[in-house]
Design a protein that fits this description.
Layout lengths: L1 H14 E2 L4 E2 L2 E5 L2 E5 L5 H16 L8 H12 L6 H13 L5 H12 L2 H6 L2 H18 L2 H17 L1 E2 L4 E2 L10 E3 H18 L2 H16 L10 E3 L5 E3 L3 E2 H7 L1 H9 L4 H13 L10 E3 L2 E3 L2 E4 L7 H15 L11 E4 L1 E2 L1 H11 L1
Antiparallel strand pairs: 1-2, 3-4, 3-15, 5-6, 7-8, 8-9, 10-13, 11-12, 13-14
Helix pairs in contact: 1-15, 2-4, 2-15, 4-5, 4-7, 5-7, 7-8, 7-9, 9-10, 11-13, 11-15, 12-13
């Protein structure tokens, strides 16, 4: 695992633009050279993700990053570009981890969002989970009762309005046509925020939700260890398996599997092992998703054809399947699949974060 951390850190250096002070949105290999793309708006979110991982890894490994310098420059150049509420929550988490002086201003900004119930209800569960994560870490670091109260209010909204107590899964959002379609990433961050909240505030109810929701999600893992992309929050059936993302297999799933293992969920150990076996070649295409000369991690296994890129079309297919056919998704033949040979910086950021 140490080798993987150092290789990931070194690859991130190839993805980092020092002048922009941003990590690439997308990177591809072209004749063994790394080609980066920075134009997508999510580049700011990806950079915050990656900074969280670098901060964590810097505590335990000599990976040669001047974290404080990068964070200061990122804030000076891009703080005005952080407009998404969830991104603000994740940034507060990073600032609190780093004990950065701007964490207090960031908390004030987030507090005004978190205390506006209507505003929270207009967001999706991932954004609210990141808000809860940031508030929880800030309250823990500051021993701040006002922050603790704000975190509690945020948790109550998440629990009351975005959690299906029948299936033990979160709703993605409250809009009629999007509510049932929850993706794996949203569930992951929902669980991660529950774990952090329950741990910091010794909330046994939140811990119980975390444990039982984790068991439910583990039950949906594929036989090869793959994590499905789209899930029906109303009946806990898989809407759509693809794309199957490498970041889910070796990074984001660990945000809930590793804490679950520590809390006594024995089946989490098998789930972790299966996740990694998928990455190293025990997948639908029998192909490793990691190359070593040069080091690279491919993004996903996806459908061939037009549907492979378009989330809207994947959503429509899932809607038809659920509304008309009322059937869970089935796997498709490997001849209809291909590897998406790009890498995203946030994948490496989460990898550093969970394994450091």
């Amino acid at each position: 695992m140490s080798k993987l951390i150092f290789q990931s850190s070194n690859l991130l250096k190839k993805m980092f633009d020092e002048e922009r002070c941003l990590f690439a949105y997308s990177t591809q290999l072209n004749n063994e050279k790394y080609v980066n793309e920075f134009s997508h708006p999510a580049v700011y979110r990806y950079t915050i993700n990656t900074l969280a991982g670098i901060h964590q890894a810097n505590k335990f490994y000599s990976i040669d990053w001047d974290f404080n310098k990068i964070l200061d420059r990122f804030l000076s150049l891009h703080s005005k570009n952080i407009t998404n509420e969830g991104d603000k929550g994740l940034l507060l988490y990073v600032l609190s981890l780093a004990n950065h002086e701007s964490r207090h201003v960031q908390f004030s900004d987030l507090e005004s969002i978190a205390t506006d119930r209507d505003k929270l209800l207009s967001l999706n569960a991932q954004d609210i989970s990141w808000i809860l994560l940031g508030l929880t870490k800030y309250a823990e670091q500051q021993k701040d009762t006002r922050a603790a109260s704000t975190a509690e209010k945020t948790f109550r909204v998440l629990n009351r309005h975005f959690f299906n107590k029948d299936t033990l899964l979160p709703f993605h959002a409250l809009s009629r046509y999007r509510k049932k379609f929850v993706n794996f990433g949203t569930i992951t961050h929902f669980l991660a925020s529950l774990h952090e909240y329950s741990k910091v505030f010794n909330d046994k109810y939140a811990e119980t939700i975390f444990l039982e929701s984790t068991r439910q999600l583990i039950s949906l893992q594929g036989e090869r260890g793959e994590w499905p992309w789209f899930i029906n929050a109303y009946n806990a059936q898989v809407f759509d398996w693809y794309q199957i993302y490498s970041v889910h297999q070796n990074s984001m799933a660990m945000l809930f599997l590793l804490p679950a293992l520590d809390l006594g969920i024995n089946e989490a150990e098998t789930a972790i092992s299966k996740s990694y076996r998928w990455l190293f070649g025990q997948n639908e295409l029998r192909t490793p998703m990691i190359t070593h000369q040069p080091f690279f991690i491919y993004r996903s296994i996806r459908r061939k054809g037009n549907l492979k890129y378009d989330r809207g079309k994947r959503y429509l297919r899932s809607l038809i399947r659920s509304s008309i056919m009322n059937k869970p998704a089935k796997k498709i033949n490997s001849s209809q699949l291909e590897i998406n040979k790009e890498c995203r910086s946030y994948h490496l950021g989460w990898l550093l974060f969970v394994w450091a």
